[in-house]
Q: What sequence folds into this?
């Protein structure tokens, strides 16, 4: 029995020493640490971007009735930024805000059309701020703005493709 107690005592001493050694070795290798802080900053300025989808009036024969089509603009402005969207007259010769034109490749034939701010197509969309433009306030995300187009009844020009390029401008 005495041998058993000696064995148990030796095992207990060895286990204690191993535990103390492990604890002691952690302390021996523990590093001292220091901290520092730094600021992270960003200044968000008033800003806007604009994107446009094409307006396609399709194909037709004789222009004996109005052809109405819609397109859309996408305006993204920083939250709270007031903006105005203007549309120019287009690139075809003789175009004006009140009478936009699509021209053929030769530039000698035209189809009249116009762009409107309202679905009833009574408010022509132009480029005079606070008069014939569309205003809004940015919400930080993309805002869709409809563009209402109309080719009115008119004398039909020669068959062919007619086009114009409209520039949409966001003022903020």
A:
């Amino acid at each position: 029995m005495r041998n058993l107690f000696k064995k148990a005592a030796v095992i207990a001493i060895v286990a204690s020493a191993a535990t103390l050694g492990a604890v002691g070795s952690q302390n021996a290798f523990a590093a001292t640490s220091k901290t520092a802080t730094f600021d992270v900053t960003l200044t968000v300025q008033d800003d806007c971007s604009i994107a446009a989808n094409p307006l396609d009036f399709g194909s037709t024969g004789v222009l004996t009735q109005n052809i109405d089509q819609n397109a859309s603009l996408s305006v993204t402005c920083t939250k709270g930024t007031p903006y105005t969207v203007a549309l120019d007259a287009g690139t075809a010769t003789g175009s004006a805000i009140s009478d936009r034109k699509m021209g053929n490749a030769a530039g000698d034939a035209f189809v009249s059309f116009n762009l409107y701010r309202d679905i009833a197509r009574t408010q022509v969309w132009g480029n005079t701020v606070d008069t014939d433009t569309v205003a809004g306030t940015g919400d930080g995300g993309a805002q869709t703005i409809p563009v209402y187009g109309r080719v009115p009844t008119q004398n039909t020009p020669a068959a062919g493709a007619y086009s114009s390029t409209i520039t949409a401008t966001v003022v903020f």
